[in-house]
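Handoff note, outgoing to incoming analyst
You'll be picking up this chain. Sequence as last confirmed:
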Amino acid sequence: QVQLVESGGGLVQAGGSLRLSCAASGDTICISAMGWYRQALGKERELVASINTYGSTNYRDSVKGRFTISRDYAKNTMYLQMNSLKPEDTGVYYCKAPGCSGWGQGTQGTVSS
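Most recent structure output, in case you need it:
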């Protein structure tokens, strides 16, 4: 079983930046593509960005040009650099490897106006 541990969340003002990390350990053989999801209070969890084995990335429209997803394959770690943050980016951010079961505990990112 794979373990995913997110970190890097915090409280920032609008226009600020956060860099999230997701460290994978355990049975990482199930990991191919990975993604960052977020869940705002009272809303469904949504995919923010994804990256496949070859480094190809996809972003939801609302974060394009502001967020950058990346992976360090040697360290089994994924990152999400979030710039020009907006209050609507607030939520709990989770990483997920679709080929593996389970979710990490998430990390809270809060953007104040």
